[in-house]
Amino acid sequence: MVDIGVDLVREALTHALILAAPILLAGLVIGLIVSIFQTVTQVQEQTLTFVPKIAGMILVGIAIIPWIVNMMIDYATAMFTGAP
Fold first, then answer.
1. What region, left, alpha or beta, does residue 10 occupy, with left being phi > 0 and alpha being psi -120 to 50 degrees?
2. Which of 29, 34, 64, 83 has its CA 20 to 30 A from that of 49?
3. What is 33-47 written as a DSSP string?
4. What is the mean pLDDT of the chain?
5. Whole-angstrom Cα distance, residue 8 to residue 44?
């Protein structure tokens, strides 16, 4: 019984990481680009990194909403039907 619970939690965490990965990766890439730009131009404004990161992450999130919804529906269906 405990093994089933551990497997369910592990699978839920794995799905959460897979769903969050594209948005987090977009934030990482945008942050890296902005950091390189700040280094090259020697502009050291702390707030400059937040607006492009947030905007990019929102755009990526909007772009992948259908994929996220399909993954969540598949997961919920598998959970309620008992399919692996």
1. alpha
2. 64
3. HHHHHHHHHT---GG
4. 90
5. 46
